[in-house]
Amino acid sequence: MDGLTFLMIDLPETNSILTLASNKLIDITDFETIALQTGFLDLKSEIASWPQIIPAEYRIDGTLIEANASEGSDTGYYNTEARVTLIMSKTVKNSLIRLMEDFDGSEEIFISFPDGTILNFPFNSIEEIDDFYPPESLISFVYYIP
Description:
By secondary structure, the protein is α+β, with helices and mostly antiparallel strands. The chain is built from 3 helices and 7 strands, in the order E-E-H-E-E-H-E-E-H-E.
């Protein structure tokens, strides 16, 4: 082996690192050319965003992974169902507790907002959240919007 050459490029937009390595000494500009040709440097992260139909004050704080809204529901009363997935954290739990305190969260399995929107929980009680959703796991919620 004549040596080792490597190039590591941080790609913060995608939370990744592009690593190129060779078991021979080569000119670093060759690696730079290869890195440019891969197309990885042009990748942009697809950051999830909250559906516009959910008011900011109804949103759960935390890292949003996925969100989508679709028409209708089985009941006919709700015009839109919005599904959101977040990374479980203390921020998510504390945000749910705050939403329950700020709005009608007495049922503990959902929150009823003043405009008739319902935020449905994937657990029976806030005390269960830690048992079923450890930190860094994915947790999904459904908003039913009239």
